[in-house]
Amino acid sequence: APCGALPYLCEQTGFRGRVIMTRPTKSFYRMVMLDFLRIGAGANDIVNPEWLNATIERIETVEYHQEFVHNGVRAVALNAGHVLGAAMFLVDMGGVRILYTGDYSRVPDRHLLGAELPPVSPDILIVESTYGIQIHETREERERKFTGWVHDIVKRGGRCLIPVFALGRAQELLLILEEYWAENKDIQHVPVYYASSLATRCMNLYRTYGGAMNDRVRQQLDNHTNPFDFKFILPLKDLASFDDNGPSVVLASPGMLQSGVSLELFERWAGDRKNGLIFAGYCADGTLAKQVMRKPKEVVRDDGSALQVRMQDINVVSFSAHSDARQTCDFISQLKDTRYAVLVHGNEDSGNKLQKKLTDDFAARGMQAFATRNAVPVEIPFAVQRTATLIGAVAHEGAALREDAFAAGERRGLEAGAVTSSGAVEGVLLVGADQQCTVVAPNELRDYSGLALAAVKHATIVPLATFLPAGDVLRELKAYFARSSLIAAGTINPTMAGTKKARGEAPPPAAAESSGDDGDAADADDDEGEDEVPKIDVGASVVVAVGQGSGSRTTLTVTWNASDFADLVADVAIVALVALSERSAHGRGGSLGGDALAHSATDLAFRLKCFQRMLAQHFSSVRVNLATGDALLSVPTVAEAGAPTRWVHVANWVQASVLPEGPAADDPGNADLAASEPLQTSGAIAPDVQAQVSALLRRAFFGLNPIPADEPTGVPEHDAVAAYLDRGGWCECGEHGGGHAAATAHDQRD
Question: Is residue 322 annotated as part of the catalytic site, yes or no?
Fold first, then answer.
């Protein structure tokens, strides 16, 4: 049965999902699996009583047409027409509709309805390909053949064996034989048995779930007549009590002669020409039933002995409740908007043939059919249009866009219904469990979503070998970040106070300038206690706390909120503080002293090394000449992965030019600089990449070289940049010239 692997799936694979089936299926599932445990060889490999009981406890039942939701995925069960309780599932996943038929049959029979059409056409149909392009006979034709063969066998005094599955086709065949025996008095003396304890138990469930069957059965039940209370058909408990004298008809399981009663009776009756065998269902390749269908003169038993087969009649008729090609094509023709079919439950040959047939028959609608293979994924791209609700600040932006659109529509004389708004709002898209979408502003995410927000905060400790006051540390950092400033003890740096502001907490009051009075320090909470040590605001959320470690030594703690720019600034600050720590360890504590803008040869080399390290985070190859200060960058020509690169020469930290192609591609150090083109006017590199390169060079320079606001410095690289800005350099805020140079550095760094 298709449910056979469910205990193993639930108990041995780590599957923790829900198990959903119809009520009749749950009842049959328990019954079939218990029977499998009783007679199945090697059953314990996939099921044992503990696994089975645990699985049954997890099963949830649904009725036909009852919708249920799991993790935002909606599904509804539909009648599949295969066996009592069989269901197809119509699933909606984010706007993509998928119909999974499982085993299904569109043809009604004596007790079941045919598979129903879904209320909407699915985008994807997952459908069985069991019979490939084969066409079943009509119900009337196959019933005529079946009853005729049975009649002929018993009339000549033979025994008729009908191997069947205990569930589904057995009940259909019993109804056919009961009606035929009632209409033919000349054979009513011939007993008809069904030899399956499982079939007997299943019959009780058929009586219980009669309301789930077709109109014919329900009408009989309304008249207090149960069609499964047979007059001419008797259960056969076991072969030991079977009076095997004279003609008889026995329906016995299993349907493929693998073992059990059907195999025993076949071996007993195969040698008599008067006897007959009728296969009425599907038989898989490699089974004894498939072998006997070819009408061999003998077959080999499991013990290796030969069994003579002399039966006069070995016939095959399909009462299979699986769809054939005609049913599947008719089904798809009524699903007008379905363009994708995924074929399952068939061998390779049947799947390939049905795939070609569906592709050809529905070529007008662009049908794509996929014959599946185990462990090979099927990928079907879908673009689903979704509607989202704007809330909060973005709702006001959306309303403004719509008002502008209506105003423009009125000017053009359009009616309100014909107006569409264009434009975009920026926000965070939230998709709920029910696939409902909303858009909120990033800063309102916590208010409207209930999501817990977190920020990644880094901290690095740099211990010094001696005591060093906060002022000396500040002067050291000012040599690299001119806008560095000391935060008074007891205040919160605005760039680091986002968490408390988000909670609506007021920052602690500024501490008194005098340091002798402890005041209320003993009552301050832990956060305020941390703020009592001197701190230096370097910029970009980078803060250096100047604390006292053991033995009157200074300990520097660098903290910052993670971001690309903050990480870059923090790297330079840490390198500078590590250099300070090394000097303090050799008795040379203190800052560089004197003018913060003074540069020694060693200091310039140090800055250039920082420059190379900062740029190496963004470019695949960076070369810096410590003697000249020139740099070479390998820059992609477009902002795409795997794009070709060009060498860019950088002079005076910021003046970039693209080297000519040719030998320079392999050895840029020998390139003709006179033939290079300024980066901003070169067509070799895309404008957006040019802007990124310029911004990175500017940030690196401003991070490593403070620029005074109003006078030349005498430092060549500083004055070159100032002159470049005076000529209309690349300050993105629009401020140019020496009078704004320091402001530019501060604005761009922040």
Answer: yes
